[in-house]
Design a protein that fits this description.
By secondary structure, this protein is α+β, with helices and mostly antiparallel strands. The chain has a single domain, classed as Cytochrome P450 (Cytochrome p450, Orthogonal Bundle). 53% of the residues lie in helices and 11% in strands. The protein is built from 19 helices and 12 strands. The strands form 4 sheets. It has a 5-stranded mixed β-sheet with strand order 1-2-10-7-3. A 3-stranded antiparallel β-sheet has the order 4-12-11. The longest helix has 27 residues. The protein is globular. 41% of the residues are buried.
């Protein structure tokens, strides 16, 4: 595969990028993708190097997100552009908070919500997480018993993390249906997938409605605090500035959590279940073995990284792996490629539930921007797969003739559908 034939934005490559990733790792570990004006980094050691060097490779990549939005806007019909402009004018501006900030500004926001993800809080929440999982397994079992099969994504993989992150944020019960829809829409925006005009408008309207809901909740929690993240953000002060967070800052942080808090976990549930169907011998090996289930979850994260990559802004002329980079350029760190690098992982395209240091995978990033919700995601995955394997036998695709595949997406990687059958344990 030569330089001229590698196109990471080809529809089929977006669905299955791993052949292209391998070619890039071997031939062009830092590769210029002209279609997005990005230098794509695919080798594990170079991705790690860039993540650790935050002074040279900055997380202030707002221009990438804005440019992506502008591309979609420019492709829309004039009447759609008019509606999008009107909706954008009613949105509360969201300044950079955590994901797109460097130190020390990054920590001043992250420290406000760290307390929700410390080990003691995660452990204390385990019964509530288990209850959500058990409830969805009942729905799975009922579906399979009645219909012979179920859509695993719709019945389990999506609703489990959505319910749990909604609880953490503090979303009222009567707004859960809208919240679930809005969170899913917010995640879809990060896939950078072209949409029809009406879908763009609907997504923009949902984003505006979500902002209004979050502002209402922030104001309500300032009057009547509760035990949730919205309460923490509504009543926290930035000490050095002696002020409460603005609505825009609160919305920016909450938006990051509502996407990261469900999309990565939902995707990994889907890919993990597909791995169990494709490797049925693993089901008996894992069942009842918490240690192996933990490694299995790390392997599912490694093999199908739910966040395939994120950008960094080059702050000075430098080089990466001998490849010259200029100040102001953008690189794209491809976690999905690094996680299948044979230089780091033996037999990288195969699942190995006995893999040594399986946790070295980069699905949650690394360094100062390591995913703050990773402990919660791991708890959900470990408890979820343990409960699924205890509740069923012979997990299999409902239609052996159908090959489930990812959506064509550059940033997020997910399974939209997974028709599943299994034998419930009576």
């Amino acid at each position: 595969m030569s330089e001229t034939t590698i196109n990471l934005f080809d529809h089929q490559t977006l669905k299955d990028p791993y052949t292209a990733y391998q070619a890039l790792r071997d031939e062009q570990p830092v590769h210029y993708a002209a279609a997005m004006n990005l230098h794509v980094v695919t080798r594990y050691d170079l991705v790690r190097q860039a993540i650790k060097d935050t002074k040279t490779f900055s997380s202030r990549y707002d221009q990438f997100l804005l440019a992506s939005q502008e591309i979609m806007f420019a492709q829309a019909a004039p009447e759609v552009q008019q509606k999008l402009t009107e909706l954008a004018g009613r949105m509360v501006p969201t300044p950079p908070t955590m994901l797109t900030l460097d130190e020390p500004d990054h920590t001043k926001y992250r420290s406000l919500v760290n307390q929700l993800f410390v080990a003691s809080r995660i452990k204390a929440a385990q019964p509530a997480v288990q209850a959500v999982i058990d409830g969805r397994i009942e729905a799975l079992t009922e579906d399979v018993t009645t219909n012979g099969s179920t859509n695993f994504i719709r019945t389990f993989a999506d609703p489990v993390p959505l319910r749990i992150i909604g609880d953490r944020l503090g979303i009222p019960e009567d707004r859960r249906e809208f919240f679930d829809h809005a969170a899913t829409q917010a995640a879809s925006a990060l896939r950078l997938t072209p949409l029809a005009g009406d879908a763009l408008v609907e997504r923009a309207q949902t984003a505006l409605d979500l902002q209004q809901l979050l502002i209402e909740l922030v104001e309500a929690r300032r009057v009547k605090p509760d035990e949730d993240m919205i309460t923490i953000l509504a009543n926290s002060k930035l000490e050095e500035e002696d002020r409460y967070l603005t609505h825009g800052e609160c919305i920016g942080i909450l938006n990051q959590f509502l996407v990261a808090g469900h999309e990565t976990t939902s995707s990994t549930f889907g890919w993990g279940m597909l791995l169990l169907c494709q490797n049925p011998e693993l089901q008996d090996e894992l069942r009842g073995n918490d240690k192996l289930i933990k490694t299995f979850c790390e392997e599912a994260l490694r093999l199908e990284s739910p966040v395939q990559g994120l950008p960094r802004l080059v702050t000075r002329d430098t080089e990466l792996g001998g490849y010259p980079l200029k100040q102001g350029e953008l690189i794209m760190l491809r976690y999905g490629a690094a996680n299948r690098d044979e230089r780091q992982f033996e037999n990288p395209d195969e699942i190995d539930v006995h893999r040594h240091q399986a946790g070295a995978q980069l699905a949650f990033g690394a360094g100062v921007h390591f995913c703050i919700g990773a402990p919660l995601a791991r708890q959900e995955l470990n408890l979820g797969f343990a409960a699924l394997l205890a509740a069923g036998r012979n997990f299999r695709l409902a239609d052996a003739g159908i090959k489930p595949e990812s959506e064509a997406s550059f940033i997020l990687r997910n399974l939209p559908e997974l028709p599943l059958s299994f034998d419930p344990v009576r």
